[in-house]
Amino acid sequence: MAEVSPYEEALDALSSLITKRSRADKSNKGDRFDLLFDYIKILDLDEAISQMKVIHVAGTKGKGSTCTFTESILRNCGFQTGLFTSPHLIDVRERFRLNGVEICEEKYLAYFWWCYDRLKENSSEDVPMPTYFRFLALLAFKIFAAEQVDVAILEVGLGGKFDATNVVQSPVVCGITSLGYDHMEILGYTLGAIAGEKAGIFKHGVPAFTVTQPEEAMCVLEEKACKLDVPLQVAPPLDASLLNGQKLGLVGEHQYLNAGLAIALSSTWLQRTGHLEVSYHQQTGSLPEQFIKGLTTANLQGRAQIVPDRIINTERPGDLVFYLDGAHSPESMEICAKWFSLAIKEDSQQKNLGFQSPNSSGSSYELAQMHGDVGSRKNPAQILLFNCMSVRDPQLLLPRLMKTCASQGVYFKKAIFVPNVSLYNKVGSHASPAESQVDLSWQFALQKVWENLMQGDKGGETKNTDAGSKDKKDKKDKKDDTETSAKSCENSAVFSSLPLAIKWLRDSVQQNQSVRTQVLVTGSLHLVGDVLRLVKK
Q1: What angle do CA 407, 326, 162 make, to 5 degrees?
Q2: I need a labelling partner for 286 at 20 to 30 A (CA). Which of 16, 39, 63, 344 fits?
Q3: Sheet architecture: strand order including 320-324
Q4: How far apart are CA 258 and CA 420, in angstroms?
């Protein structure tokens, strides 16, 4: 058996904190939130947390983007920054960024064991070991305290009120991003209930900002703010002209909303911490240079990210390209579909000019230089690679994705459904299950939704076989099952693992030299992370 590295040993210890219980378990409510204060005492972090200059951000959509913009702005203003976000895509260290860079392995290990060993030594029946996310939040506090960051930007993991990051009693400023329906099984089934949960991060007298919200949500936010004497303001979306002709580092119209919120959070943080040398006042009508640089250079893995396949691209640049976006709500599906449709159009236009993205200054793009003369003569084919958590409703997600793409003239030749690799209650790349254990019933349910949509979508370009030939095809597929662990229909396939799906994609591309394959990976940030891990190897 291969020797386990010190880093993998730490990942195994971290994995032991993952509870098998669903996050939606009813006994989860608050889940003894008071324990967090015991953990903080054990780790001797009370003083450090109360001194920390925190920006705390909750919301349904755009939390990660808003935090990323805010961190980038304040780093460009010359401050030492700490950023805690979730989930991670490839490596757990991504959750802890110091001055915009994920913490190095050496420091991570030192802080990890410092916290883990102390908690283990002091755990009891009464104060058990913290659960996975709580431990990561405590670790973030330890890292930011020890590294003496000037500002700690904390993204709420789930909800607000009972989130582990909410042990912060006196943040400098709070932000609530766009609210919508997500994690309803935990947070409540109305926008009002969800807003109430997120507003749980409001602290007495601490200013808060939000973006334009549906009325039901806004009413609840205002009511909670009023009770706590919180000055709550709506931050206007960023006016694109303030960027002096440059583009935001994160792609998509909705990012102007997140950028506007990040500007409000950053300038309020600067004012309230007495750093008046750089600040932005709406009246001046221009953004400080540091703000512009922060907004245009911000980048976030797994959101509107384009990654050419390393293996195929060594011989045939541009023949297999992954378009990755962790969208997992109906609204973000639509945004993702618009981005994908636009990106593949830009891609085909640029094939003639040599490959250079308009935004390829290194922001959300990671593009190999591609040879336009060869690529431009190939026919592009779009494939969807999809999974979502079983608490989400594919009847809301998939039609939105398909219709928005179709409205832009984009039709998927095939949809592939796979389970996430990272669901095996393990953190780290050395954890993968025996394939026989994988339950694919959810993937088959997703496939059925897709096939029904395709049957109903007469406007689509995909031809459907009649039932008779479909039966024959299914019989043939059952035979193929043994070879590829896939179940195929005319328009879709289920693979029992992601590596098999990637292998099938690579094999298809190798066999068909006249096609450029463009794969949209979406539905789950975990899936996006799993694909990045495999494709970047």
Answers
A1: 125
A2: 63
A3: 305-308, 320-324, 515-522, 379-386, 412-417, 492-495, 486-488
A4: 28
Q: Which residues pair with 82 in a beta bridge?
A: 98, 152
Residue 77's Cβ-side half-sphere holds a number of Cα atoms within 13 Å equal to 26
Identify the residue whose tokens are 């954890």: 431
Q: Is 75 annotated as a binding residue?
A: no
Tell me the pTM: 0.80
How are beta strands 101-102 and 305-308 bridged, if at all? unpaired
CA–CA gap between residue 266 and residue 264 (Å, rounded): 6
The answer to whether residues 252 and 335 touch, using CB atoms and an 8 Å cutoff, is: yes
Instruction: Give the pLDDT confidence score for residue 1 in this predicted structure.
Output: 57
| Residue 469 labelled as part of a binding site | no
Structure tokens at 262: 């990040």
b/e string for 166-182 if b means 16 or more Cβ within 10 A?
Answer: bbbeebbbbbbbbbbbb
Q: Is 155 annotated as a binding residue?
A: yes
Q: Retrieve residue 384's tokens.
A: 């969807």
List alpha helices for 228-275, DSSP H. Answer: 255-272
Return left, alpha or beta for 128; rule: phi > 0 is left, psi -120 to 50 is alpha, else beta.
beta
Which of 198-232 are b and which e, b meaning 16 or more Cβ less than 10 Å from the residue's Cβ?
bbbbbbeebbbbbbebeeebbebbbebbeeeebeb
Greater confidence, 334 or 278? 334
The one-letter code for the residue type at 160 is G
Rounded Cα distance between 190 and 182, Å, is 10
SS3 307: strand
Q: Cα 380 to chain center, whole Å?
A: 27
Angle between helices 6-15 and 105-122 (to 10 degrees): 40
Residue pLDDT, tens place only, 114-161: 999 999 999 999 999 999 999 999 999 999 999 999 999 999 998 899
- Report the C-alpha gap between 263 and 295 in whole angstroms: 9
| Cα-only R_g, the chain | 24
Classify each residue of 261-293 as buried b or exposed e, where b means 16 or more C-beta atoms within 10 Å of its C-beta: bbbbbbbbbbbeeebeebbbeeeeeebbebbbb
Half-sphere exposure of 393 (CA within 13 A, CB side): 11
Give the pLDDT confidence score for residue 133 in this predicted structure: 95
- Angle formed by the axes of helices 105-122 and 35-42, to 10°? 110
Most confident of 125-139, 178-192, 278-292, 474-488: 125-139
CB of 346 closer than 8 Å to CB of 357: yes
Residue 325 annotated as part of some ligand binding site? yes
Residue 477 corresponds to which tokens in the numbers above? 């597929």
Is 183 annotated as ligand-binding? yes
Over residues 218-226, the mean pLDDT reads 97
Decide: 505 and 414 in contact? Cβ < 8 Å: no
